[in-house]
Amino acid sequence: MSALVEIRSLKKHFRVPGGWFEKVRYVYAVDGVDLDIAEGETFGLVGESGCGKTTFGRLVLRLVEPTSGEIVFGERNITNLDRSQLRPMRREMQIVFQNPLSSLSPRLKVEQIVAEPLTTHHILPREKIRERVIELLEQVGLGQHHLDRFPHEMSGGQCQRVAVARALAVNPRLIVLDEPTSALDVSVQAQMINLLEELKRAHGLTYLFISHDLNVVQHISDRIGVMYLGKLVELGPSEDVFDAPLHPYTKALFGAIPLPVVDAKRELTVLEGNVPSPINLPTGCRFHTRCPIAQAKCREAEPELRQVRSGRFVACHFVD
Q1: CA atoms within 13 A on the CB side of 172
Q2: Distances (CA, A) of 134 to 17, 33, 104, 289
Q3: pTM for this structure?
């Protein structure tokens, strides 16, 4: 499949406030990511909290300005587009945020929330907007009786459905799903995942699915990228990465998934130490301070994300 999004050497460094005579410091949130997302696929991005997943998702949509790098969307370089040039592209790129209640205005009713992108982008005449809003709500499992409700009058799952309807309103090609199920109950999570899969098939959508819930990512994703301290350390097809992880960090991350079988046993890699600060990064491989197979080379040279098998990419000196 052709690539819908092409990302090259993407970086975002946040400056840390300090005094007049202090050395300038930066948080290296995203620090050189190369990635292609194919049209029609669901790409899952996983990693520990603070590894840069959310910042990366917002960089792709230019909600956060990159420090350097290149973002190509649909064969158009959007990295340096100004606000007026970027506005038409917003119709093709949407996002569903993690917390449904905080992402919806408490002062607007559901009808106004879902209608807002339609009026902002002048997609439909005013007299047809209400009909389109009702159609969108029905697609996400809600009804006309929800039109006059405020977000606080609805459950978390219903609010997230409203957020999905709002994202669908402009007929996007790409939707960034930033942990869309983490604030929901387990039973509601399953409903939301099924809904997202149905909408993808119906509308031909492409997803960037960001989550720390590895079971959900495994279920919904075609390919998976594993991020650690602002960099991708492993990349490959979902089933291959879960069945046979290659990077030591991926093995430890997946080994922590609870098994649904009583008394089931598996090889568990226990990582020692804490995650290094994204301000003071280790030299060489960023994982070497916690890696069980680290050697002298790991402290000196940073490994590149290289292909070791068909479709499998790993950033490790000692994985072949």
Answers
A1: 27
A2: 47, 40, 18, 54
A3: 0.93
Rounded to 5°, the CA angle 235-193-129 comes to 115
At residue 49's C-alpha, the angle toward residues 71 and 315, to 5°, is 60
| 3-state class (DSSP) for residue 271 | coil
Q: Who's near 26: CB < 8 A, 6+ residues apart?
A: 13, 14, 15, 16, 279
Q: How many residues does the chain have?
A: 320
- Ramachandran assignment for 290, one of left (phi > 0), alpha (psi -120 to 50 degrees), beta (any other): alpha
More confident residue, 255 or 264: 255
Q: How many CB atoms lie within 10 A of CB 15?
A: 10
Whole-angstrom Cα distance, residue 313 to residue 320? 10
Q: Are 13 and 26 in contact (CB under 8 A)?
A: yes
3-state secondary structure (DSSP) of residue 77: strand
Element (H, E) at 8: strand 3-16
Q: Which helix (H) or strand (E) holds 111?
A: helix 110-120
Q: Which residues pair with 174 in a beta bridge?
A: 93, 206
Closest listed residue to residue 5, CA positions, set 155, 207, 166, 302: 207
CB 162 within 8 A of CB 100: yes
Neighbours of 163 (CB within 10 A): 25
Amino acid 94: pLDDT: 96
